[in-house]
Write a structure and sequence with these properties.
heterodimer, A: about 210 residues, 7 helices, B: about 100 residues, alpha+beta
Chain lengths: ~210, ~100
């Protein structure tokens, strides 16, 4: 591109092209959704079979998942500390989603602690079944904001599916069924939209190349 | 009667830089260079012109011993860009009406 005079139509074309280019920078590759989604899905389904065949203690796979999550969280925090400011472009959407992630994980930890406190307290305040319903509701909230900020319709639709599942979970007391519904919610809200976002991301990048 | 198009913005490369910066919070010089496919020297001159007009802020710092230049659009730049687009719409609308 040179510094030359242009016609009005060329001006409009440049504006459109550049705004489109900048927008593509904000596209999510969906990899985090896919990874996080499949881990949650596996933990739910394995917990279902664990309860069915009595392999280990009920929350064995969730504790395993928790340990993996803590390692991943520490790794991400250390990595982001050392690569601070490495992004070549900063967007307002990126800032918003960064803060949303912090809020999401802090609330998630709060619910997990509430479930654990509830399990250990004689006058139970939060049962795991109700806790998982709240967690699915929180996932839905996250997915809705993400979908809206990135203008990604599958996530917006998925968030309402997740809220529907969260509502159904409120009336189910069998933890095995809660695990099945949790897996379904994760499949609908994270895994499927994640793969769709990844496919779209690859398509856009191929078009640019 | 149409307004004149802002001469600072009515240039291929400067307009491209402003269009990129209006869509993001801030961007590195290397990002602008890659997306506009301009040479570093030419881009540097045009960025300087936009800075002198008060349309963008340019921050220079060192990151890992390498110089890093970051550009950010100013409120004056946003206003000028919006005015430019409005005038452009008038021109194109007038052309269609002819």
């Amino acid at each position: 591109m040179e510094d030359k005079q242009i016609t009005e139509k060329e001006s409009l074309l440049i504006i459109q092209q550049m705004i489109h280019t900048a927008k593509n920078e904000q596209k999510d590759d969906g990899k985090a959704w896919i990874l996080w989604g499949w881990f949650l899905f596996a933990a739910s389904i394995l917990t279902y079979f664990n309860m069915e065949y009595d392999w280990f203690s009920t929350f064995f796979f969730w504790n395993l998942f928790g340990a993996f999550s803590i390692i991943a969280l520490v790794y991400t925090a250390v990595r982001s500390f050392f690569t601070k400011g490495s992004a070549r472009v900063k967007t307002y959407t990126g800032d918003l989603l960064g803060k949303l992630n912090v809020g999401f994980f802090l609330t998630l930890i709060l619910i997990i602690v509430a479930i654990n406190v509830g399990v250990r307290t004689p006058e139970v305040t939060m049962t795991p079944t109700k806790g998982f319903s709240l967690m699915i509701g929180l996932y839905a909230f996250w997915v809705l904001i993400y979908g809206t900020a990135l203008n990604f319709r599958p996530s917006i639709i998925a968030s309402f599916v997740m809220w529907g599942i969260a509502f159904v979970c409120l009336f189910i007391n069998d933890f095995q069924w809660i695990m099945v519904l949790h897996a379904l919610a994760v499949l609908a809200g994270y895994i499927i939209p994640g793969h769709m976002a990844n496919r779209e991301f690859k398509k856009v990048n191929r078009a640019i190349l | 009667m149409f307004k004149d198009l802002d001469p600072i913005l009515h240039s291929q490369l400067r307009l491209a830089v402003m269009s990129l910066l209006i869509s993001v919070k801030e961007a590195e010089f290397t990002f602008l260079k890659e997306k506009t496919a301009a040479t570093a020297g030419n881009l540097s001159v045009q960025v300087q012109k936009l800075k002198e007009a008060g349309y963008i802020e340019v921050t220079k710092q060192f990151k890992d011993n390498y110089p890093q230049t970051t550009c950010k659009i100013t409120p004056k730049g946003i206003e000028a860009f919006e005015q430019y687009v409005k005038t452009l719409q008038q021109y194109i609308g007038g052309e269609r009406g002819d």
